[in-house]
Structure formats: structure tokens, C-alpha cells
């Protein structure tokens, strides 16, 4: 199957498949003399597995480590995906039912108790925090929590204001090259601000930038300031981290 056909089948872009090939995540089994990528059935099965992991919020680096591990069991992974998605569906069904009941309540067609209004809601676990712990370990996350907890409400509001200011500044710069002086100055401010709330190594900072694009929750939040901001920040953060590391003795 040609790359355009494979991309259309999976509902992703050709650029995404090019990227997967470039990083060694999904290398097509054949490349013609003219340079056209051809995807086999095995390639398509692996692509399905990659997209299932993406759906569950796994970063590309982790997916690559998992699926290219000699001990990787595809059957076991599929069973795991099924279990997680069934659990997610059950929770969404509860929330949809709660929403339907709430609509009836607002129209005066039924009464809801306070408890009924929150059936299906469960925010006891933070997906961002869990992913951060898996990627970088507990240290940075715990230090960020301790730092935030020690701030007054005014200090927390000031940090939020500073974050939004940098977002808006980067949004204005997002059509420039990510390695431009202006973009790098702004992304340097972002790095320093994040380190007022925790301790981020340059590699952690670079990994966080990748997460902005890999996790649609981050992307949607950031792209409110300007479409393409998340991808721009990822590129700017990667360049910044690499440049700063090269300068270190």
C-alpha cells in the first residue's frame, strides 16, 4: 500500500507517516527505486498498535521502546487496550446519563440530588501528572507540587498571568522559524518560568515540548492562543535544549 493510501486508511496525515519513518518508529517494508514508501500488512498492524497507544496518551518515545522490545506481546497489548477503552466507555456512558438527567432537571421535568449531579465524574487521578511521573520520575513533579502548594493565591495568579503572557508572545512569533532569535528569547523565558515551579532538565524540557503535540489535550489548550502554537513551541523547545546542552562544559 502506498503511503497516501495507508495514511487515508488510518485517518492520519502523510507527514505523520514520514515522521514515524524518520524516527524509526514505523519503517515501511519496501521503498521503490523512485523512493516511494510501500506499507505491508505487518506495517499496517504495527501502525494500528502505534495509534492505539497514542489514543491512550503514550508518548512516541515510549511507544517505540515498547513495540520494538523483543518481549513485546501484541496480543497482550491488544487485550490491555480493550480493557482500558471499555473502562473509559463505561465512565463516559455514566457522564452522558448524568448530562441527560441534568438537562431534564434544568427543564423542570425531574429533580436531581446533589450526589446525582456528579455521577461519573472522577478526577482522583491526573493524566498529566501520571505521564510526567512515568517519563521523568517523581522528583520534578513532587517538587513542582511542593512549590505550588507553598505559593499564596496571589503568587499562583501571577504565575498563571506570566504563562499566558508568554503563550501570547509565542503565538505572535509562531510563523517565524523556531530557531529565530525572538523565538528563542521567548522560549528561554518559558524554560525559566517552568523552573520556578519545579526542576526541569533540558532533556525534560525538550520531552515536554514533544508532549505538547503528542497529547491532544495540551495541543487544544495551547492552540487557543493561535493555531499551530503547540507545534511551534515543541520545535523551539527542542532547539533551545540542544543549543543549551552544546554550550555546557
TrEMBL record:
InterPro entries: DNA-bd_dom_put_sf, MerR-type_HTH_dom, MerR_fam, TipA-like_antibiotic-bd, TipAS_dom. It comes from the Bacteria. The keyword DNA-binding applies. Residues 1-69 form the HTH merR-type domain. It holds the Pfam family MerR_1. This is MerR family transcriptional regulator. Keywords: Activator, DNA-binding, Transcription, Transcription regulation. SMART domains: HTH_MERR.
